Amino acid sequence: MVKNESLNITALQKKIQQFATDRDWQQFHTPKNIAMALTVEAAELLELFQWLTPEESLSMQNDAKWKERVGEEMSDVLLYLFRMADHLNINLPEAIESKMEKNAKKYPAELVRGKSKKYSEY
User: Which structural domains are found in the chain, ordered by start?
Assistant: First the structure.
């Protein structure tokens, strides 16, 4: 089991790619289909929280079985994101860094600290 280790995105993408290749699933893994599958998996993650109050959702972290289910759904979402990045030749670390820089400009800490409004409302 991996514990608090750095995520090697390239190695993980190769592993995911090989998993699909071994099953001849590349034919189904178009960007459109992956985007649809990703949405389904995100909905399955959301379903785990659907009827919980905010307080219940926070307290569920003490339920090992529930945490395992959440982790599985989160993993499914992440796996599809990695697969899509691979297909579209998107460097995720670069894309994340770029997005974080844009977000820092849209949401300057000194202006938005403790607020939840959209950037266009500031």
Answer: 30-104 (1.10.287.1080)
